[in-house]
Each structure stands twice: as C-alpha cells, then as structure tokens.
Amino acid sequence: MTIDRLDTGVPHPARRYNYWLGGKDNFAADRESGDLLAKSYPAARVAARANRAFLQRAVGFLAGEAGVRQFLDIGTGLPTADNTHQVAQRIAPESRIVYVDNDPMVMVHARALLTSTPEGETRYLEKDLRDPAGILASLEILDLSRPVGLILVAVAHFLPDHDQAVSIVRTLVDALPSGSYLTMTMATTDFLTPELKANWDESLRTGRSDVHPRTRSQFEEYFTGLDLVTPGVTAISEWRPDPAATEHPTPVEASLFGAVARKP
What is the pLDDT of residues 71-88, one digit of tens each? Predict the structure, then answer.
C-alpha cells in the first residue's frame, strides 16, 4: 500500500480527531473542518480527550478484569498515547490486536508506530466498517473460537443510517464467540442544551458535520442480547471514571454515550 491515494483536500474523521487531540498528522482541510465543528460544539476537543480516556479505561477492564487477550479495534484513528495494544499488552503482553481503518495515512502511521510486544502481535487492515464481512475474513491472527474484545469507539456515528449501523454491528458481534465483549461510544445530543443541540443539527443540515448523534434508546439497540457491564450505558466521562485523572468533563462537554457489554 502507498499513500498515493490520500486526498489531503477532503477532511477525514481520523485526522480531524488527531487535530483535536493536539496532534500534527492532519491537513488544512481537517483543521478547517475541526474548527467549524468546534464553533457549533465548543467542547469538541474536550470530548475527543474524554473519548480517548474512555477507550483506555475500557481496554484496561477488558485485558484485566475480563481476561480478554484478543482485540478488534475498528476505526483506529491515528496513533497517539496509550493505544489499544499498549494498554492491553501492558497488562497481558501476549495480547493480539487487529486495527482497522479506511484512511491510508492512518495505516502508514500505524504500521510504523504501533509495534507489538514480542509475546503478542498486532496487525493492520485497511478496511471500511461498512464491509463487516471483509473485515471478518481478514482476521488471521485472531482465533474466533476464543473471546474477542470488539472496539467501536466514536466510529459508528459516521454512518448516517441508524438501522444500517445496528445491522453492521450485529454482524460483527454474531461472528464472535460467547465471552466476547462489545465496547462502543457514540455521539449524542441528549445532554446538550437546546441551543447547542440546534447548533449541532444545523451543522449536519449544512454538511459541516458528518457525525450523526443517537439517542440513548438508539444507542442501547446495539447491545440487544448482550449483558451490559456495570455501570451500563452512561456518558463516557461517567463510565468507571479515574479519580486520579487531570480532566473530569461533564456529560455536556463529552456528549458521547459509552458502554461495554459481554456476549453470553
């Protein structure tokens, strides 16, 4: 794979997220898109950091308390501090991780920076969430007879059709064995003031935003038939918060739902 197909004039969610996190792996189109969204939703950068912190806490739970040793992280984004494999392999060095993203720039950086422990393994797939069958057919290093931690953090809300998104997630979960876990976060306007919600709706209507928020009841549909891990569906900042963290955003600031659930 080469980076020749990279279109730097079109914003990409992974690079925009990198910009919000203070990274340098982004282009003018990504920064412009990020700034436009931040005008409608001023806490966008706080939410990006809170989402990353949720991912780290959830992976810590999966690798630690839940004993998961295999992870499928779809919508990886550009590498930053404490990625999925780093958190998991710090707890269990033998952990295996497959990262999936559809941006060639993400893949170039991932292959260069997301290196495994000698005991474990990491792989990188350039695939799209909208092709779950293609993803499932490419998981050579994962043993699908053993539990897998499926991670869909801040990615399914880029699919505008809610029913399609639910169907895709169910296809992935159905392919995993009992004892696997689904970890998800998803944008919501449930916590926002009427003014902020109106701003978000206007951003979607005018094409400035590609993030399609879901209500609590819609988010809960992704976990039908699964056993939610305590505390269940919450604002991401309220899911097993770290008291030692330097930042404790409110649900309004980090307007994403988050949850982890086990497949019985």
Answer: 999 998 766 668 899 999
